[in-house]
Amino acid sequence: MDLTVALFTAKATGTESYRPEIGSVPLSLLTGVYLLFCTNQTFWSKIHTYLSAYPVAIAALYIAMAALLCALITIFSAKYLIKPFLIFLVIAAAAASWFMDRYGIVIDSDMIRNAMETTPAEAGNLMTPGFILHLAIYGLVPSIVIMAVRVRHRPILDKLLWNTVSILLCLLLVGIISFANSKTFTTAIRQHKDIVKSVNPLSPILSTIHYFTQAGKEAEITVSPIGQDAKILPALGGVHKPRVTVIVAGETARAANFSLNGYERDTNPELEKRDVVYFPNTTSCGTATAISIPCMFSKFPRSSYSHSKALANENVMDVLVHAGVDANWLDNNTGSKNVADRIAYFDLPSTNDTRFCTGGECRDDIFFDKLDSWLNNIRKDSVIVLHQMGSHGPTYHLRYTDEFRKFTPDCRTAELGNCTDSEIVNSYDNTLLYTDHFLSTVIDKLKARSDKLATGMIYASDHGESLGENGVYLHGAPYLLAPDQQTHVPFLVWFDDDFARSMGLDRACLAKDAAKGGRSHDDYFHSILGMMNISTSVYDPSLDIFSGCTTRQSS
Question: Which is nearest to 197 in space by CA: 484, 465, 467, 477?
C-alpha cells in the first residue's frame, strides 16, 4: 500500500517516469550502430567481397563507420531536434535499404530525379506489401523506440563542450583507422566506386540534396533555340507523297534478350518477317528514362550531355518544327521529360481507357486508335513519337496480354523476391514478345497507307534492364557502374520503298553498315533529321546512321 501511494505520488508530481532515459550522445551512437548493422546489408556485402583478403581492415572499418555516424548524428543532437532527426534517418535508411538490398539499386542523384519524375501508378507498383512490412520493421519500430525514450540533455555550455569532445574523439578515431589502412581503403574505393555510393543513409540523403540543388538552378534556365535555319530538302526519286516517320521511344528493352540480336529465344518472331534493319551493339545515353529520353532527342552526345544542357537547348523535335514538319508526341509512360514542351502532346494514361488501362497504367495497344486517326489526317511531312510503357518493371506481367504469355511459368507479382530468376526472365521475355507485336503492328499500319504516304519507323529503347545478374535488378545504376544489360539497347529501322527512294537510300548498303554495330543514342538526333531530309547547321552527317548509304550524302 505504501509503495503504491509512493509511486502514485511520484507520478503525479512528475518526479518519476516509467520511460527509460538515455543521454543524447549514447543515443546518437546506438542509432549509428543500428543504421550501420541493420540497414547497410549492401554496403557490408560489397566490403566483405572487395576486402576479403584484409579481415583486419574490415574489422577496423566497422569501428570507423560507427564512429563516423556517431559524430555526424551528434552534431544534430540538440534538444527538440534530435528525435525528429533520428527518426528521419531511420525511416530514410529503412526505405533506401529495401531498394538497395532487394534490387541492387544505387540511389544517386539521377535515381532521385527518376523517382521525382515518376507517376503515382509507377510508384505504386513499388509500394508492395513486402516494402510496407520492411518499412514497419526497420523504420517504424525503431522510430517508436526513439519516441518512447527520454533524452537526457546537459546544460547548454556543458552540452556544447561534451558534444564537441565526443565528435572530435570520434573523428580522431576515424582518422587513425583511415590512416592505418589508407592503402587498402584507397585502392578499394578507386577500383570499386560503388562502395561509397552504397553507404546508407548518407549516400541517398546527399544525392537528394544534390538533386534539389540542381533542380533549383534548372528552374531558372531559359531555352535557347537551335536549328532555326532548318529546311526540308526536296524528296529524291520522284516521290511527291507526304513523308512520315514514326519514332518509337522504347522502354526498358535490353538488347541481350532480343532474338534479332542473337538471343536464343524467339522474342522477335514478327519483326523477323518485316524487313527491318537492326543495329547490334548499340549503347544508351543513360540507365533511366529521366536521363535517356532527353539525351536521345538532344544534340549533345553522352560524353558532353547534362540535364541542364538539355533544358537550356531545343531538341530535334523543335528543329523539325522549324523546318516545317508537323511534330506530335503520344505518351504512355511518365512524360516526355521536357522534350515535347513545345509541340503537340497527348498523355494516353489520362484517358483511363478501361480496354487498356488499370491502376493508372496502360498497355501499349492504347496507341493504335490514336495512331490510326493521326495517319488518316496527314497532309504534309510529319513525325510522331510513341513513348512506350514497353517492358517497365517490376510489374512485367502487366505489360502483355495472355496471348503473349508464351514463356512460363512467369512472375505475376511486383514482389520480385517471391519469384525465381527464371520466372522473372520469362515474364520479361513476354514483354519483349509483346513489344515485337507492337512494333510490327505499327509497321503494318504504315505499310497499309503506302499508296498515300511514304513511311518509315525508327525504334530504340531508352535503357536496358538487369534481371538478377550479380544480384542486380531493374535499372538506374550510375553509368560508370552500370552492367551491359542496362546500357546495351535494341535499335532498328524500317521504311517502305518510297521512303527509301525519297532519301536516296541503298538498303543493302545500310544493312551492311548496320551489321558492323557500334552505334549509340548519340546518333538518334542526326538520324531523325536524316530520315526527314532536313538540312540545318546542327546536323552532323557522321552521326547519321543513313548518311553513308544515301545518294544525297555521297553527292
Answer: 477
